[in-house]
């Protein structure tokens, strides 16, 4: 689509803090008497034909733990892989593109598109996503045709999830007079399969591999119209979730596990943008509905057969940005969101943690309403200093909640400095405070919750945060980026629950170009999180506390040299070390360590690329991973009487990967 230059200005003034001094835009020139029919570019290169590259390779993995597939992108054994980025252009304006990323491996994607520039375009997409948890989970329950069958002997089961997505789309654009019109439609489908960890109580707590087999369909379409300094669009979105797994049963007991229910949702939205001199105005209004009408498991005392659930949504946004002068820019926005629960309400027997109370109560319909606004200003003191400041406020109301209304306000300021040669500083400080209506235990849970308990997302909280970014290039061959962050949360009015937390970190990145053919990099990052929580064993005042200390570290370095064998051979090395540790200390009359979670990972990759000819290349790579983790909370299958677990799902392995690939450059 040929967008007017004023629309480009509209986007820039909304997102950028650059100063616009005078309007010398090309679209301001008077070209009504200029004959452009015979204009042509005599020096422009001919870009028609095929361009890009195609890479075909083979991967071999040697590992005894399926968890390594998360890093190697393929399971144990051999796999073929295809990478491609090919473009075709015709002189008449027709073009096509084909892309493939790791096609054939566990996480891969492919994209095809074709059309005519400024007229129409068709697209086709494919994507696969895989996540591997463990290949040796212990279980004595096996799923088949809706039934969980017991096994006399404990066997192993793989816990992993795979998602396959396919999508197609069509768009067209046309110009009538001074307006540009664009329409689009897109459809996608996702199939999700595998097994994930879950549990139920019947009569003892039992872990088992929950089967996953679900399909999600999505449809979106829209129409947009743009003029000289305005843009408007109307969009429609629809999604439908279909769970292929029904309720699960044991051989001697039906319906012990309810499935995720089928549901659907749609949304219609109208948006617009308008540029008035140096002021940009954008607005959006959306209306939607979520429907859940799947059958429910029938139990004694429950009169409903289908849930008949419906939630209506309303969302609105208004944002204004204005350049008051060459130095000062001001912005403001208002966001509104409402969730109106219109589901059916029934009376039925209430379940409690100690059984069935026998009392009949109505299920409550929970609604939410949020109003948020932001105002900020940016002032360019001179070419080396820019100061920003703002105020954000969010009010959230929830029906039938321990606290029906919360209000959170944040003030912040930023300072950008470029006064030091070859250096940039960015400093930010903020303070936020959350309070709200009277906190009281909900009538739905007051019998099982301590009235002194404060849920962390509802409790009063003061947060102080700082951030500093530093960029420095001491020489032409090196560039340094350093970022530091600190945040402290204080729940001063909380007696039971989370009372405080502290989070601080740094990230350091160094890029180096030692010589024309030798480059390298290094990075380091650490994060520390410390939190404290109070509890009550006697269901009264606080009589115990727990301190949790989490620590994370990432280190890495690499280099690439391309000056061997008359510049035909390139060698590279990448190394990564990651470590995480979580330690808990419970204080109850005495300090009692609860064990910790600990993991580390070493990963190294070596590769060599040889240029056989101007178009043909070959690459040989080797990757190694050493992974170890341990979680003190995990126990053997029947180590605790009355509890059946998956066993200890820790990882401790060495894995190797070898890859050989050939690439061809299209001209």
TrEMBL record:
<keyword id="KW-0998">Cell outer membrane</keyword>
<keyword id="KW-0472">Membrane</keyword>
<dbReference type="InterPro" id="IPR036942">
    <property type="entry name" value="Beta-barrel_TonB_sf"/>
</dbReference>
<protein>
    <submittedName>
        <fullName>MtrB/PioB family decaheme-associated outer membrane protein</fullName>
    </submittedName>
</protein>
<dbReference type="Pfam" id="PF11854">
    <property type="entry name" value="MtrB_PioB"/>
</dbReference>
<dbReference type="InterPro" id="IPR020016">
    <property type="entry name" value="Decahaem-assoc_OM_MtrB/PioB"/>
</dbReference>
<keyword id="KW-0732">Signal</keyword>
<feature type="signal peptide">
    <location>
        <begin position="1"/>
        <end position="21"/>
    </location>
</feature>
């Amino acid at each position: 689509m040929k967008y007017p230059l004023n629309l480009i200005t509209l986007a820039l003034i909304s997102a950028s803090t650059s100063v616009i001094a005078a309007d010398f835009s090309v679209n301001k020139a008077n070209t009504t008497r200029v004959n452009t029919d015979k204009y042509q570019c005599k020096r422009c290169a001919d870009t028609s034909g095929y361009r890009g590259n195609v890479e075909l390779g083979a991967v071999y993995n040697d590992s005894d733990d399926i968890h390594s597939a998360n890093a190697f992108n393929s399971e144990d054994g051999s796999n073929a892989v295809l990478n491609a980025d090919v473009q075709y252009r015709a002189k008449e304006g027709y073009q096509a593109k084909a892309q493939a990323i790791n096609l054939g491996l566990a996480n891969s994607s492919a994209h095809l598109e074709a059309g005519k520039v400024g007229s129409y375009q068709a697209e086709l997409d494919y994507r696969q996503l895989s996540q591997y948890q463990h290949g040796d989970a212990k279980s004595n329950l096996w799923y088949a045709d809706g039934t969980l069958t017991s096994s006399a002997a404990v066997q192993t089961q793989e816990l992993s999830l795979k998602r396959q997505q396919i999508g197609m789309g069509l768009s067209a654009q046309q110009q009538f007079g001074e307006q540009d019109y664009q329409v689009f439609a897109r459809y996608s489908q996702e199939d999700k399969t595998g097994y994930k960890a879950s549990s139920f109580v019947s009569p003892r707590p039992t872990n088992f591999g929950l089967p996953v087999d679900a399909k999600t369909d999505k449809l979106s379409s829209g129409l947009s119209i743009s003029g000289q300094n305005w843009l408007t669009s109307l969009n429609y979105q629809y999604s439908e979730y279909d769970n292929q797994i029904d309720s699960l049963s044991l051989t001697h007991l039906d319906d012990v596990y309810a499935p995720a229910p089928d549901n659907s949702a749609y949304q219609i939205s109208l948006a617009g943008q308008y540029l008035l001199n140096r002021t940009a105005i954008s607005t959006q209004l959306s209306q939607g509905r979520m429907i859940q009408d799947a059958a429910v498991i029938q139990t004694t005392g429950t009169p409903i057969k289908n849930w008949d659930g419906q939630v209506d949504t309303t969302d609105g946004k208004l944002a204004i940005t204005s350049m008051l002068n060459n130095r000062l820019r001001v912005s403001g926005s208002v966001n509104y969101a409402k969730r109106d629960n219109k589901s059916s309400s029934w009376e039925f027997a209430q379940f409690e943690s100690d059984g069935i109370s026998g009392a009949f109560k109505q299920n409550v319909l929970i609604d939410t309403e949020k109003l948020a606004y932001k105002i900020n200003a940016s002032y360019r003191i001179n070419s080396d200093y820019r100061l920003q400041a703002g105020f954000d406020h969010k009010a959230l109301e929830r029906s039938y909640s321990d606290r029906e209304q919360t209000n959170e306000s944040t003030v912040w300021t930023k300072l950008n400095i470029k006064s030091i040669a070859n250096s940039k500083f960015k400093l930010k400080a903020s303070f936020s405070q959350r309070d709200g209506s009277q906190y009281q235990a909900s009538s739905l849970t007051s019998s099982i919750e301590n009235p002194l308990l404060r849920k962390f997302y509802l409790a009063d909280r003061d947060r102080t945060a700082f951030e500093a970014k530093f960029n420095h290039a001491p020489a032409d061959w090196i560039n340094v980026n350093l970022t530091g962050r600190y945040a402290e949360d204080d729940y001063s009015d909380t007696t039971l629950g989370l009372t405080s937390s502290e989070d601080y970190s740094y990230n350091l990145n160094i890029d180096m170009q030692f010589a024309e053919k030798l480059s390298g990099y290094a990075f380091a990052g650490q994060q520390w999180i410390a939190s404290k929580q109070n509890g009550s064993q006697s269901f009264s005042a606080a009589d115990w506390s727990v301190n949790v200390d989490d620590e994370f570290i990432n280190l890495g370095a690499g280099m690439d040299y391309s000056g061997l064998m008359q510049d035909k051979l390139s060698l590279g090395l990448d190394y990564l070390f990651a470590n995480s540790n979580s330690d808990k200390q419970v204080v109850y009359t005495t300090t009692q360590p609860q064990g910790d979670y600990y993991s580390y990972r070493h990963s190294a990759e070596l590769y060599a690329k040889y240029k056989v000819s101007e178009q043909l290349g070959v690459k040989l790579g080797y990757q190694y991973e050493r992974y170890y983790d341990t979680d003190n909370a995990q126990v053997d299958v029947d180590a605790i009487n009355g509890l059946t677990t998956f066993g200890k799902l820790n990882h401790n392995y060495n894995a190797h990967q070898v890859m050989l690939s050939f690439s061809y450059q299209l001209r």
